[in-house]
Amino acid sequence: MMPGFTGGTLDRADRLRHDVDAFAAAKADWRARLLKLAGDTPEVTEDGRLGWASLADTPDDAELLLLGLDGGRPHFVAHRPGERMPPVRSPALFAALDQLQAGEAATYAAARSLLDWHARHGFCANCGSPTTIFRAGWARACPNCGAEHFPRVDPVVIMIAEHDGRALVGRQAAWPARRYSALAGFLEPGESIEEAVAREIAEESGVPIGRVRYIASQPWPFPSQLMIACVAEATDDAITIDANELEDAMWAPRAAIAAALAGAPDAPFLPPPPYAIAHTLLTAWTNEA
Fold first, then answer.
1. What is the pLDDT of residues 158-216, one digit of tens each?
2. Residues near 190 by Cβ (< 8 Å), separated by ≥ 6?
3. Exposure of 243 by Cβ count < 10 A (0-12 exposed, 13-18 middle, 19+ buried)?
4. Which residues fall within 8 angstroms of residue 241, CB to CB, at 6 or more apart?
5. Are 136 and 67 in contact, with CB atoms under 8 Å apart?
6. DSSP, res 11
7. Residue 166 parent element (H or E)
8. Under DSSP, is residue 242 helix (H, G, I), strand (E, B) or coil?
């Protein structure tokens, strides 16, 4: 099962990012397309594809960011200075994500993360001066001190612990009723993936961890994480939750997780949505049996 927000088909065309003339030609190409967004919500066609418009629809105050090429046809998203991504994901966005084809969702993820980065990094982290866009939208430069800034990706570990044929899942109070998912947390400086997995599980649930194995990864555009999915072997099954992190945590047998993933009416909990890598992780673990 391919994780959500992966499988994009656009050629990211790094070669055009270094060539001012080639980028100008891409913007002048009559075939060029502009991603349709309402805030951070994409327009989705009946067949699960992103909606695109002509560059003639670009707002007058916007700067074009190159997403890539499809058969040589340039695809852009418009960044408007001062415009920020909505702080809360709307029901309309959730509905759009449920409809998008996998590769289309990957293009959306790149666009949303790029827009959010520009919105939050308009000033130089070195000297505080306003920065300007270059490299076809994939960098910002400081005219005062010469520093160059590039879109960042924050690594996050997302994992289940396993013990005696069961997987550890938890829930946060803000989630929909009955939803349980994998535990997750940001990697810290000077920490390996395996160390972060063990630390986060121990911090959130009190469960001690031995061996850790990698499963898959996923870009997560809210705002710009790389989710690194793992399975960890628990050396004990006693749970002591951190109430600041989790509302509840429990050990779920494979059959219970399989029922949740299948949407069975008697399943003990609701699973994460299919576009979340936690869904991929639980599916992979369940299928190992």
1. 999 999 999 999 999 999 999 999 999 999 999 999 999 999 999 999 999 999 999 99
2. none
3. exposed
4. 170, 204, 205, 206, 248, 249
5. no
6. B
7. strand 166-171
8. coil
